[in-house]
């Protein structure tokens, strides 16, 4: 996939930038590769830097309400200062190592309703920064994610929507400043007790923290309230576990009044810790492509986000106001409800109204 941008700061005759992704589909922990192709204009120019940004949309709480904000959550410098001569052609390879916590945007080959992500190229010349169009990136689930998503569908949970919430989950180590919520309506057998379920994956190379928030219905003399469960599962267990049974156990545990006190749920026996010695993703996930070169020295590292400490609310801890600017094809109909209502032809359509 390609986008082209004529550097507006220089007007007609300025350099053009053409960023090409080798493959727009990727996974958490896997590389996203491509080339930034530059063609010089009608005059020599001094480029200050070329930077790629992974861009997404998230919900931010501020001023007593939520609002949507678009921000880069990872920035990769692909070039420092250099001189681009008239008509000169350059092709700069890059590799973005997707964070393990990268949210899922694509399920069974279709866009997950509510999720958008793209790569944007930033080119700086003469203190003027020009940002190119967004090129869509499709982040697919890892096997452990997929099995758990399948289990929810098999149990009859109906997908509602997905979004990103800016903040930290209390007690869970995060490397990104947001987390994904995948929301479900309950099936009939749980509808008497649960209004909605929110599923969050916090993924690392060794394991996945699964956080569930249950919006429980109130009774005749009681108010509804939220309960939470937190479970640690191993990548290695993806294909050796009856995930339908496990997920059903998690839900039943929440519904059971004797075990539904607010706070962390306890995983079922055998599903609380990764297997000893497991430290690598399954084959095909998370490894750089053979023979692919590394970024230029001094470039290619992830940005760092300051941890602001934990807050009283279990589900979300806020960093402050600084971010404001900032299919499915398998039997049994498991794809129903997960997919976007309409295909997003251009990722820019999804971000319309939020661009700076």
UniProtKB/TrEMBL annotation:
Signal sequence annotation: none
Where is region (Disordered) located? 263-288
- Biased composition, class Low complexity, residue ranges: 265-288
Origin: domain of life: Bacteria
Q: What is this protein called?
A: Sporulation-control protein
């Amino acid at each position: 996939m390609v986008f082209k941008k004529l550097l507006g700061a220089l007007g007609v005759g300025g350099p053009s930038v053409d960023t090409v992704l080798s493959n727009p589909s990727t996974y958490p922990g896997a590389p996203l590769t491509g080339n930034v192709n530059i063609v010089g204009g009608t005059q020599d120019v001094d480029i200050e830097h070329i930077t790629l940004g992974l861009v997404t949309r998230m919900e931010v709480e501020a001023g007593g309400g939520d609002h949507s904000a678009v921000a880069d959550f990872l920035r990769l410098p692909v070039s420092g200062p250099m001189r681009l001569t008239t008509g000169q052609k350059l092709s700069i390879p890059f590799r973005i190592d997707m964070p393990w916590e990268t949210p899922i945007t694509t399920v069974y080959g279709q866009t997950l309703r509510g999720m958008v992500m793209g790569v944007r190229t930033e080119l700086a010349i003469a203190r003027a920064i020009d940002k190119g169009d967004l090129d869509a990136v499709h982040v697919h689930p890892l096997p452990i994610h997929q099995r758990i998503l399948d289990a929810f569908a098999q149990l009859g949970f109906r997908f509602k929507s997905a979004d990103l919430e800016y903040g930290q989950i209390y007690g869970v180590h995060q490397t990104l400043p947001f987390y994904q919520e995948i929301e479900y309506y309950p099936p009939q057998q749980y509808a008497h007790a649960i209004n909605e379920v929110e599923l969050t994956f916090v993924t690392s190379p060794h394991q996945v923290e699964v956080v569930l928030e249950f919006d429980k219905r109130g009774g005749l003399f009681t108010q509804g309230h939220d309960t939470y469960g937190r479970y640690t599962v191993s990548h290695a267990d993806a294909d050796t576990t009856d995930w339908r049974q496990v997920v059903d156990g998690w839900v039943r545990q929440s519904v059971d009044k004797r075990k539904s006190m607010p706070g962390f749920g306890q995983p079922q026996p055998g599903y609380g810790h990764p297997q000893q010695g497991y430290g690598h993703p399954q084959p095909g996930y998370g490894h750089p492509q053979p023979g692919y070169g590394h970024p230029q020295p001094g470039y290619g590292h992830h940005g760092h986000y300051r941890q602001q400490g934990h807050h009283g609310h279990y589900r979300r801890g806020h960093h402050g106001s600084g971010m404001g600017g900032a299919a499915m094809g398998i039997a049994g109909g498991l794809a129903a409800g997960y997919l976007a209502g309409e295909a997003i032809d251009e990722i820019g359509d999804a971000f319309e109204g939020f661009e700076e």
